[in-house]
């Protein structure tokens, strides 16, 4: 396993993190989830990503139970706030009231005294940025969080948050959590340069495009039972973004290239994310222990320059696709 500083900040996290969206505490039972956490820690993963909204609290609750077996000093725990946790007018967003209340609710569910990284899940245009920054700073002063970050914020807002935090003499965001994969390279255009400029690390999500980049789906065929693609309660995003025969065929071609390097498609796809200098870590979501055992090896995979070039041609980035 490799460890990197989170952007310019002191905390070191493994280049693979364990995620919990649609898995721990929701679609994956506690026993398998606990085994995944054990395999993650045994394999050197030292950080876990969750959110208050995953299963409306059930992901944090499951992690809270599982993590009781481990020493709190040994892992970095990241969660999020913003998405609705109820139907009331103050049950979502980034107001002082909602952040403060949800921070305490997350601490209870996770059965811990502090959150290492508290992330704003999305921007909240209805709350002044000053209010969110001041609240995060206050929670850090109270010892309830150590760092705060953002997720899927546009580059201009990330820059504004950094500038404003400095002006207010408050802690700035230390990280961003964007969608990033061979099939989703938009952050390269503006978000990554802004993060590099301001010293934010990027912990990227959906590195396998919800499983499409494992090449387990056959073009022209319905998805196998038991996969995310086959489950209508989980597959909307992947169907909307990635479900075309062209993309499924490209994933198959990429898997062949991976095989030539002695890697699986998942390992190549995740290792590819890690070669961008703005990326600190990729978050791996899994439904089975065997998937994690596969993915974790991406941390040590090396991609030769000629393969990187071929991947660039097959999966063009924003600069390439907008070139005349
Ligand atoms: N900030 C945000 O807004 C946001 C959004 C989404 C996710 N996240 C975070 O990022 C994490 C990862 O996102 P994601 O789950 O979308 O990641 P992903 O890696 O793109 O997809 C994960 C899914 O792919 C399948 N899979 C994974 N490894 C596999 C393997 N080796 N072989 C075959 N299938 C495999 C599994 O689904 P099946 O077995 O069901 O097919 C797994 O649940 C989440 O857990 C969450 O912590 C954050």
Structural summary, described in words:
The protein is α/β, with parallel strands linked by helices and 324 residues long. The chain has one domain (3-210, 278-305): NADP-dependent oxidoreductase domain (TIM Barrel, Alpha-Beta Barrel), CATH 3.20.20. Helices cover 39% and strands 13% of the residues. The protein contains twelve helices and ten strands. It has an eight-stranded parallel beta sheet with strand order 3-10-9-8-7-6-5-4, covered by helices on one side. It has a two-stranded antiparallel ribbon with strand order 1-2. Strand 4, helix 2 and strand 5 form a beta-alpha-beta unit. The N and C termini lie far apart (41 Å). The site of NADP nicotinamide-adenine-dinucleotide phosphate has 29 residues, from strand 10 and helix 10.
């Amino acid at each position: 396993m490799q460890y990197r500083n989170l952007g310019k900040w002191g905390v070191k996290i493994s280049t693979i993190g364990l995620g919990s969206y649609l898995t721990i505490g929701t679609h994956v039972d506690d026993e398998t989830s606990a085994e995944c956490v054990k395999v993650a820690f045994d394999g050197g993963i030292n950080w876990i990503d969750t959110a208050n909204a995953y299963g409306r609290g059930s992901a944090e609750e499951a992690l809270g139970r599982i993590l009781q077996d481990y020493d709190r000093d040994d892992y970095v725990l990241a969660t999020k706030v913003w998405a609705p946790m109820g139907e009331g007018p103050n049950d979502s967003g980034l107001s002082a009231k909602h952040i403060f209340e949800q921070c305490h609710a997350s601490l209870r569910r996770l059965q811990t005294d502090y959150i290492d990284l508290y992330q704003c899940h999305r921007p909240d245009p209805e709350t002044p940025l000053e209010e969110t920054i001041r609240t995060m700073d206050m929670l850090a002063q109270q010892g309830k969080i150590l760092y705060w970050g953002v997720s899927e914020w546009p580059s201009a807002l990330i820059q504004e948050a950094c500038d404003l935090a400095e002006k207010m003499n408050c802690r700035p965001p230390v990280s961003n959590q964007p969608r990033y994969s061979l099939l989703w390279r938009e952050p390269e255009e503006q978000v990554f340069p802004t993060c590099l400029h301001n010293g934010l690390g990027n912990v990227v999500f959906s590195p396998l495009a919800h499983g499409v980049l494992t090449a387990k789906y056959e073009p022209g065929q319905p998805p196998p039972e038991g996969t995310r693609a086959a489950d209508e309660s989980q597959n909307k995003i992947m169907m909307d973004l990635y479900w075309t025969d062209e993309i499924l065929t490209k994933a198959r071609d990429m898997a062949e290239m991976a095989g030539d390097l002695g890697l699986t498609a998942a390992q190549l796809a995740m290792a590819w994310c890690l070669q961008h200098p703005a990326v600190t870590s990729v978050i791996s979501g899994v439904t089975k222990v065997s998937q994690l055992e596969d993915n974790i090896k991406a941390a040590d995979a090396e991609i030769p320059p000629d393969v990187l070039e071929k991947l660039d041609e097959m999966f063009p980035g924003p600069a390439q696709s907008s070139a005349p």
